[in-house]
């Protein structure tokens, strides 16, 4: 088996010229067996929502992720939770995750084990294949959900059904944390407008504005399958490309509340090499976007370097929080663009601020309108 196809740090540059082309990434793992080792799939009848936790050798943080699922407040939505484990079995036929699942013995939980380590992204794909729910809710094995996350997802999916366009992707707002996750309910955080994320926004921002699917990010299974699933050819931007592909036919919205906590302290994405890979992949995605129309070409011609600079600035702020730094030399090696002039930076930041203000305003109006419609229907 070629293990390179499961390496999420490898970037196939040519693939970024064909982002909108369909590729069946599920076929790449057809030879990998995934066995149901623990749980009864008939214990939960006709689930609407499938929570997926792909895992690999995360015994300590996995416990927190699983407990956050089991601590969910009551909800009307019927749900199941699938654990898809890449960890090799020990001599007793167990993994640390399996032992934790057995300890709780919850009828909602199904534990699956892969015969080979297929990496995190293709593990998502396998989880989606196995899921019975119409909607897929993602949770990394080192992150956690708020205790009312499923309640909030149920409410927002109901709002999505009231809109004129089909909802395909609910991007979860989240908070970063280290150590213990202190605040467990979404009501402990401010609420936001339910912003619609579009391909035009990718043009303006240089990215989808949707982070990695986790902490409650919920995707329509049909939309995920139509996009062909996660594709490792796009390296660390594989999740952003998936979101961009789904944007073509479905609404993508930001959640109007915090759904979970994203653990940074032990995150592999914090090393400088991974951050530089992200910058390179993000620039390649931007390059594709700037070829899609004459306006896009003009916008990219004037502002691509400023957009790339802002992306690097954002990632460097994250790195500095954890005592790391992207040097100017590293940036010049990774980025496809030179650092822009101070004037261009200022002009772009002003235009970006105007765009964000308009997007927020539209989000507040749409959110208020949808809530009125739901109350009227109820």
Written overview of the protein:
This protein has two domains: 3-269, Spore Coat Polysaccharide Biosynthesis Protein SpsA, Chain A (Alpha-Beta Complex), CATH 3.90.550; 272-377, no CATH class. It is 42% helix and 16% strand. It has helices at residues 59-70, 96-104, 119-130, 149-161, 199-205, 221-226, 238-247, 272-289, 294-321, 328-334, 342-377, and strands at 34-38, 49-55, 79-85, 109-114, 135-138, 144-145, 167-177, 196-197, 218-220, 251-263. Strands 1, 2, 3, 4, 5, 6, 7, 8, 9 and 10 form a ten-stranded mixed β-sheet that branches. The model is unreliable at 1-5 (pLDDT under 50). The protein has eleven helices and ten strands. It is α/β, with parallel strands linked by helices.
Topology:
Layout: E1 34-38, E2 49-55, H1 59-70, E3 79-85, H2 96-104, E4 109-114, H3 119-130, E5 135-138, E6 144-145, H4 149-161, E7 167-177, E8 196-197, H5 199-205, E9 218-220, H6 221-226, H7 238-247, E10 251-263, H8 272-289, H9 294-321, H10 328-334, H11 342-377
Parallel strand pairs: 2-3, 2-5, 3-4, 7-10
Antiparallel strand pairs: 1-4, 5-9, 6-10, 7-9, 8-10
Q: CATH superfamily assignment of the largest domain?
A: Spore Coat Polysaccharide Biosynthesis Protein SpsA, Chain A
- Helix and strand content put the structural class at alpha/beta
Overall strand count: 10
**Uncertain segments of ≥5 residues (pLDDT<50)?**
1-5
Number of helical regions: 11
- Give the name of the CATH architecture of the largest domain: Alpha-Beta Complex
Question: What characteristic shape results from the CA principal axes?
Answer: globular
- Number of self-contained structural domains: 2
């Amino acid at each position: 088996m070629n293990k390179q196809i499961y390496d999420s740090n490898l970037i196939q540059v040519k693939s970024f010229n064909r982002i909108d082309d369909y590729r069946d990434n599920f076929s790449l793992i057809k030879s990998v067996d995934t066995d149901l080792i623990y749980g009864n799939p008939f214990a939960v009848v006709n689930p609407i929502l499938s929570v997926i936790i792909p895992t690999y050798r995360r015994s300590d943080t996995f416990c927190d992720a699983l407990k956050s699922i089991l601590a969910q407040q009551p909800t009307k939505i019927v749900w199941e939770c699938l654990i898809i484990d890449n960890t090799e079995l020990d001599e007793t036929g167990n993994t640390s995750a399996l032992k934790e699942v057995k300890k709780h013995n919850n009828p909602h939980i199904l534990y699956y084990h892969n015969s080979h380590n297929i990496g995190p992204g293709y593990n998502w794909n396998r989880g989606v294949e196995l899921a019975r729910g119409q909607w897929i809710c993602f949770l990394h094995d080192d992150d956690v959900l708020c205790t009312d996350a499923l309640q909030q997802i149920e409410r927002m999916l109901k709002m999505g059904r009231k809109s004129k366009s089909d909802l395909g992707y609910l991007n979860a707002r989240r908070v970063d944390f280290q150590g213990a996750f202190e605040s467990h309910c979404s009501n402990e955080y401010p609420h936001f407008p339910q912003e619609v994320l579009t391909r035009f926004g990718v043009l303006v921002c240089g990215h989808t504005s949707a982070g990695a699917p986790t902490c409650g990010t919920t995707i329509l299974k049909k939309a995920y399958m139509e996009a062909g699933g996660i594709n490792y050819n796009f390296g660390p931007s594989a999740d952003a490309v998936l979101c961009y592909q789904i944007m073509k036919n479905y609404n993508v919205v930001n959640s109007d509340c915090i759904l979970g906590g994203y653990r940074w302290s032990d995150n592999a994405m914090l090393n400088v090499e991974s951050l530089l890979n992200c910058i390179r992949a993000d620039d390649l995605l931007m390059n594709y976007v700037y070829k899609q129309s004459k306006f896009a070409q003009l916008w990219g011609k004037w502002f691509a370097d400023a957009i790339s600079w802002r992306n690097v600035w954002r990632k460097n702020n994250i790195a500095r929080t954890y005592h790391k730094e992207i040097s100017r030399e590293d940036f010049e090696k990774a980025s496809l663009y030179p650092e822009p002039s101070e004037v261009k930076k200022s002009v772009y930041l002003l235009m970006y601020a105007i765009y964000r203000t308009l997007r927020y305003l539209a989000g507040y109006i749409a959110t208020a309108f949808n809530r009125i419609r739901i109350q009227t229907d109820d």
